[in-house]
Amino acid sequence: xNSWDSDETDHDESELxxxxxxxxxxxxxxxxxxxxGRIYGLVWRxxxxxxxxxxxxxxxxxxxxWSKLDxxxxxxxxxxxxxxxxxxxxxxxxxxxxxxxxxxxxxDETYERTAVGATDVPAAQQxxxxxxxxxxxxxxxxVLLLHDVEGYRHREIxxxxxxxxxxxxxxLHRARKLVRRELEK
Length: 185
Description:
Elements: H1 13-21, H2 25-46, H3 51-68, H4 78-104, H5 123-134, H6 138-149, H7 154-161, H8 165-184
Helix pairs in contact: 1-2, 2-3, 2-4, 3-4, 5-8, 6-8, 7-8
């Protein structure tokens, strides 16, 4: 048992980050334990609700975070930085998959993957909401999740996805409209 296995509240996160930046694997493991649940939920929703793909993306996000840990300057909370790294990993994975799919066959709206995600709604409505989100086209779903669930601003979403800020707003409007329509059925 190492020194980081004790109650995580005993160690300040910034101390863990500093130790991890110095090469302390146990400190990084403690950071992983603190953040893996939220990051898994994020990549699971962004990848289309595939547990296997979400597991891969979770691992890739933490590998990327470990390799880029020296770039974390502490301008924001570590969790915020890790969240952004994870979104970039998931979006990069999707771009690669879309490129491969376009090479193999023409894509249309019906081809786009779907996702479901957990939100704070009564259990009776949870399944309906998940199905409504799952029915969204991928770009609309991505913007909805990043904006309404994860709290990113349109400017940030535009930077992460490569779309114009106005397109992000349009996709969000469309996504909300489609979800409302689906829930009214």
